[in-house]
Amino acid sequence: RVRLMEFRSIERGRVLDRAMSGLAFVAHDGVGYLWDACTSIHGTLWRIICTESSVQWDQLSVCDHYWATGLEMVYIDGHLVLFGGFSPAHNTRLSTLAFFNLATRTWLLETLDLPPSETLVRVRGRTPSPRDKHAMRGYGKSIILFGGWGPQGLYATPGESWVEGVDPSERDAGWNRDVVVLDCSRLASHHEVQWVWPTVSGELPPPRAAHSMEIIGSQAFVFGGRTLAGRMNDLHSLDLNTFEWTQITVSGSRPPPRSWHAGAAIDGRLVVCGGVSAAARQPEALDDIWQLDLATRRWRLLGHMPGGGRFWHTCVYDEKCMMLLVVGGLAVYFDDSVQPHPPFFGIRMPPATLVDACLRAIADDEEVATAAELCLPGRLRATLHKIRAINTIFSLVDVPDKYIA
Question: Is the pLDDT of residue 15 over 60?
Answer without folding.
Answer: no
